[in-house]
Amino acid sequence: MDRAALQHSVLSFLENYSIEATPHSIDELSGAARLLRPGAVVYVAHPPKCTHDEIIATVRKLTQLGFEPVPHIVARRLRDQLQLDDFLSKLAAANVRRALLVGGDLPEPVGNIHDSLQVLKSGALGKHGIRTIGVAGHPDGSQWIDSDVLRRALRDKAEYARQNNKRLYVVSQFGFDASSLFRFEAELRASGIELEIHAGLTGKTPMTSLLRYARRCGVGASTRIMAGTVRKLFSRPRLMSMDQQIVAIGKHRLANPESKIVQAHFFPFGDMSATLRWLNAVLAGEFIFTGNKRGISVLSTT
Questions:
Q1: CA angle 128, 150, 68 (to 5 degrees)
Q2: Residue 205's CATH number
Q3: What residue numbers bound the domain in which 123 lies?
């Protein structure tokens, strides 16, 4: 494969990256702010012990830092339509125009809002100025929700968006196998779903931390990799580092110019600065392809 073409494919996939933060990591992000490009898109996840007020405070901080916050709206953590409207009105006051809808991992909803489709159909997002809406995708499945239920829910959201002229796109959960992402894209297309996919990727994080987060997040692949050492895990052919996945996605996009996998979304998992330094080096062209063992090696991350 033409190395120049592959480099262009990788860079075009990475150049408009987004990154994940939480209220717990806002101090770390503030320290790493100089490494983020002006206006960068930062998603604000909603951890179990965080309140909606903490999400709003984090959104405001990101706006002050010059970034575009994209808060998660977790359906099962909302009591009712009144709380949803209150939350969205405060986000609107903080100039939020984009959000990510997720169902949430609670066994039972805290109120009468059961899923993200219900939030979407309520009309509350448009009422409060949110015109661009991300929805969650699970290429590796979920330990909490049956795969058929996930696919049907995504089809329903895509159909609602099509009928109501809403701009919808998919943000995928992170995983350890790029081929799962490619199968996910193919399944969407086979179902008539032509939504853009923002591919979830782990940051430059130690693998022991990644496995801990994978178990917590319910990534399907993690259930197959709990035993053994990290070295043994990554000797298995279908487990890929972030570097390898990015190269695989670059090749996939070259071979499939119509691919809906359009950009990267990073989960830094406690090492925001390392992830951003790596990204900046790659985007500056300071990298080489190193074959199947590592995928990409940066020349400097200073």
A1: 35
A2: 3.20.20.220
A3: 3-298
Q: Residue 27: how many CB atoms within 10 A of its CB?
A: 10
Q: State pLDDT tens for residues 48-91.
A: 889 999 999 999 999 999 999 999 999 999 999 999 999 999 99
Count structural domains, the chain.
1
- The pTM (predicted TM-score) of the whole model is 0.89
Residue with structure tokens 């990534």? 219
Question: CB within 8 A of 200, min separation 6: which ones?
Answer: 171, 172, 173, 174, 175, 265, 267
Q: Which two tokens stand for residue 299?
A: 């020349």
Which residue type, as a one-letter code, is found at position 232?
K
State phi, psi for 137 to the nearest 5 degrees.
-125, 150
Dihedral sign for Cα 111, 117, 120, 123, please. Answer: negative
Contacts of 109 (CB under 8 A, 6+ apart): 75, 76, 77, 78
In the chain, pLDDT over 70 holds for what percent of residues?
85
Count of all residues that appear for the chain in the document: 302
Separation of alpha carbons 23 and 302, rounded Å = 27
What is the secondary structure of 204-266 as a DSSP string?
A: S--HHHHHHHHHHHTBGGGGGSSSS-HHHHTTSTT---HHHHHHHHHHHHHH-TT-SEEEEEE
